[in-house]
């Protein structure tokens, strides 16, 4: 693998954090290589409609399609990283500012809070997760804008279908030391001067720097869809509106989000064993299974809410058991040549910040690398980690707090207080 051997920086994971890092390195003309376990999503793009900027509905490659719903991207973190990456205009072309609307209701479908964004509210627009990933992915693969002065084309490589098994120290007498990356297919890449683990919750890179491992929160999200063809769509649209509709009571939630194509993403947030399965692994597989699920989990909830799950599109649901690292585990002695960004560094109970913080990690790491230069990567990593530890710890604590109040038996009591405290 000539390309990877020539790069000094390896990024493990092509999720939003890893791709933001790659893009930022690219615009700063710093070479890198990314490895991801996924298959190349553009392998068959010759027969696929092209992604043509602002107006077209982007092609969503099949391997990127089931990545959750929509993400709100914040001014000071995710948006900032996109600006520095030269991608803000592309982001804005797909960002939904009306998606910032946020309604909270109780199990009787009675409003607790209702927030409608003003015309100048720009702080947390929504974008579909696959669209964001596609913008980032194309930005590392496609030629740089020739009109941007000073930007050499330092396209890195994304090497697909490379599932990392482990990262190993490489030391050879009289030769440069560094790190090797070993893959499950038996191949090895490297040595690299810096390995950045952007490989998410179950990072294989993490064990080089800390023994910390994610803990199951006790809550699982079951994800389903309501598409325009669904007979309940018109009623769902009237009820949910253009943003997020969040129902919470007695330790259960239901989160409905409008997607870019007008369909609705529905999460049922309920306490379930981590490896729960009803035999074939899909709780919402059939109408009978859905009815049983509603009886067991949402007894007493208003029909206008339970119908959103009962009559969501037929087909499989996706199960997201929610994990978190412990806040006390964030902070370790820097290890020469290895660091983490995004969920690999600080997986938290979902709190609407994960992607933003991962993208901001990427931005901060690149700033430090640029400041120190490739000769002083260790210094860059130590400086980056110092702030990342503070950020990561706060992120996890915020997730823990939300898990506690949203899934409390007496919810929504504290939820209302919390929403008011943040201006809802
Ligand atoms: C249900 C749910 C809803 C969420 N909603 C929001 C939200 O609204 N807003 C928000 O900001 N955050 C949200 N999050 C959190 C957010 O998804 C994560 O924080 C974010 O995806 C982290 O990005 P990442 O790039 O660090 O990791 P990931 O997105 O997990 O990407 C990791 C990448 O590494 C690759 N990879 C993993 N293991 C290996 C391996 N062994 N070898 C090679 N490649 C590997 C994967 O294929 C993937 O491409 C939500 C999370 C969940 C579960």
For the secondary structure, the number of strands is 17
CATH topology name of the largest domain: FAD/NAD(P)-binding domain
First-to-last CA distance: 53 Å
The percentage helix is 25-40%
The secondary structure category is alpha/beta
| Annotated CATH architecture of the largest domain | 3-Layer(bba) Sandwich
Tell me the Rg in angstroms: 22 Å
Order of helices and strands: HEHEEHHEEEHEEEEEHEHEEEHHEEHHHH
Q: What bound compounds does this protein have? A: flavin-adenine dinucleotide
Main pleated-sheet profile: 7 strands, mixed
Silhouette: globular
Strand content: 15-25%
Instruction: Provide the number of structural domains.
Output: 2
Poorly predicted runs of 5 or more residues? 1-5, 45-66
Q: Which whole number gives the mean pLDDT? A: 88
Structural notes for this entry:
The chain has 424 residues and is α/β, with parallel strands linked by helices. It folds into two domains: 9-41 and 69-99 and 125-213 and 327-402, 3-Layer(bba) Sandwich (FAD/NAD(P)-binding domain); 216-324, 2-Layer Sandwich (D-Amino Acid Oxidase, Chain A, domain 2), CATH 3.30.9.30. The protein is built from 13 helices and 17 strands. It has helices at residues 2-6, 16-27, 75-84, 88-94, 129-141, 206-209, 233-240, 287-297, 303-310, 343-346, 354-372, 377-406, 413-421, and strands at residues 9-12, 33-35, 70-72, 102-105, 111-115, 126-128, 157-159, 164-170, 178-183, 188-192, 194-197, 215-226, 244-249, 252-258, 264-271, 318-324, 338-340. The strands form four sheets. A seven-stranded mixed sheet has the order 5-4-13-14-15-12-16, sandwiched between helices. Strands 7-2-1-11-17 form a five-stranded parallel sheet. Strands 8-9-10 form a three-stranded antiparallel sheet, with no helix packed on it. Helix 2 (16-27) runs parallel beside helix 5 (129-141), helix 2 (16-27) runs parallel beside helix 11 and helix 3 packs across helix 11 (354-372). The model is unreliable at 1-5 and 45-66 (pLDDT under 50). The chain binds flavin-adenine dinucleotide. The site of flavin-adenine dinucleotide has 30 residues, from helix 2 and helix 11. Flavin-adenine dinucleotide is lined by residues 12-18, 35-38, 68, 71, 163-164, 198-200, 204, 221, 320, 342-343, 350, 352-356, 358. One of its GO terms (molecular function) is monooxygenase activity. Pfam families: FAD_binding_3 (PF01494). Residues 193-369 form the FAD-binding domain.
């Amino acid at each position: 693998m000539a390309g990877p051997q020539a790069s000094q920086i390896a990024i493990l994971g092509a999720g939003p954090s890893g791709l933001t890092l790659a893009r930022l390195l690219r615009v700063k003309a710093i070479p890198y290589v990314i490895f991801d376990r996924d298959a190349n999503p553009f392998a068959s793009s010759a027969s696929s409609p092209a992604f043509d900027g602002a107006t077209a509905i982007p092609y969503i490659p099949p391997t990127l399609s089931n990545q959750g719903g929509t993400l709100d991207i914040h001014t000071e973190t995710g948006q900032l990283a996109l600006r520095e990456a030269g991608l803000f205009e592309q982001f804005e072309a797909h960002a939904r500012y009306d998606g910032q609307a946020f309604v909270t209701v109780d199990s009787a479908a009675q409003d607790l809070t209702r927030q409608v964004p003003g015309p100048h509210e720009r702080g947390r627009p929504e974008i579909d997760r696959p669209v964001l990933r596609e913008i980032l992915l194309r930005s590392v693969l496609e030629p740089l804008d020739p009109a941007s002065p000073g930007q050499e084309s330092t396209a890195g490589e994304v090497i697909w279908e490379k599932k990392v098994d482990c990262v190993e120290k490489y030391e050879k007498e009289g030769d440069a030391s560094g790190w090797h990356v070993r893959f499950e297919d038996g191949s090895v890449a490297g040595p690299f001067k810096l390995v950045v683990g952007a490989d998410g919750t179950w990072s294989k890179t993490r064990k080089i720097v800390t023994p910390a491992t994610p803990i199951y929160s006790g809550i699982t999200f079951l994800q389903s869809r309501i598409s325009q063809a669904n007979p309940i769509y018109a009623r769902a649209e009237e009820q949910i509106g253009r943003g997020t509709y969040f129902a919470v009571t007695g330790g259960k939630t239901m989160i409905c989000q409008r997607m870019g194509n007008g369909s609705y993403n529905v999460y049922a947030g309920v306490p379930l064993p981590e490896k729960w399965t009803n035999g074939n692994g899909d709780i919402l597989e059939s109408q009978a299974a859905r009815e049983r699920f509603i009886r067991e989990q949402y007894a007493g909830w208003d029909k206008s809410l339970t119908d959103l799950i009962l009559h969501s599109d037929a087909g499989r649901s996706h199960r997201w058991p929610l994990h978190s690292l412990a806040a006390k585990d964030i902070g370790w002695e820097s290890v020469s040549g290895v660091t983490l960004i995004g969920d690999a560094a600080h997986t938290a109970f979902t709190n609407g910040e994960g992607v933003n913080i991962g993208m901001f990690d990427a931005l901060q790491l690149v700033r430090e690398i640029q400041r120190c230069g490739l000769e002083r990567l260790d210094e860059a990593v130590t400086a980056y980690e110092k702030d990342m530890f503070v950020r990561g710890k706060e992120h996890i604590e915020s997730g823990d707090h939300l898990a506690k109040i949203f899934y409390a038996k007496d919810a929504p009591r504290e939820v209302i207080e919390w929403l008011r405290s943040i201006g809802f």
